[in-house]
Structure formats: C-alpha cells, structure tokens
Amino acid sequence: VQLQASGGGLVQAGGSLRLSCVASGRTSGFSVAWFRQAPGKEREFVADIFRSGGNTFYADSVKGRFTISRDRSKKTVDLQMNSLKPEDTAIYYCATSESVIWSSRTSPNAYARWGQGTQVTVSS
Hints:
mainly beta
C-alpha cells in the first residue's frame, strides 16, 4: 500500500482547506488516519476512520472544525478543515494500517504506511 497526500497550502485564519489521501493497493478494511507535525513538536493525531465500520474519531483541538470522510470507490480519505487557526499550521500526514486496534488508534506507532505529507500554513 502506498499513500499520496495532497491539498495543502496557505490560507488565512478562518479559511478552509480540503486534504486528500489517495491509496494504491489493497486497503479494504484498513484504518486511515491523519496526523500532523508542527516544527519542533511531536507528530500528533488529528482524525481517523476505523477499519471497515467507518467510526470516526477526532482530536479535541479539531473537533467540530474538521471532518474526515472516505470514498471507497476512489480509495481516498479526505480531511475537510474549516475555521482554520494559526495553530493548525503543520505538515499533515495520512497513514494506514490493517491491524490498528481501538485502544491505539491515536498513536503514530499503530500505523505501518505513511504518505509523504502536505504542508498547511494558516496565517493570522
């Protein structure tokens, strides 16, 4: 499985961006998550879709502003980001694995495959 993330860019505070993660290879039943990493900080969980059931989970910092969605036919997982804040500035990565368990779904260590990252910059 290979992942390709896209959609990042520069936006003013309060604006919106839509990130897309396209997968190649078998991904049926896989969990897919978005993480982000700001300069000098550790990679942090943003949102995920858990396995085939489609259950979603969000970090408190983005809840109500970001929405993760999956299009199975296109093998894409999108992250719609609204009401962006300067603190959302980071490189955003999508990640996937077929063996994520519920209790570890927010840990980067739970994901085996990562996309290359896309830069999101929010100006104040």
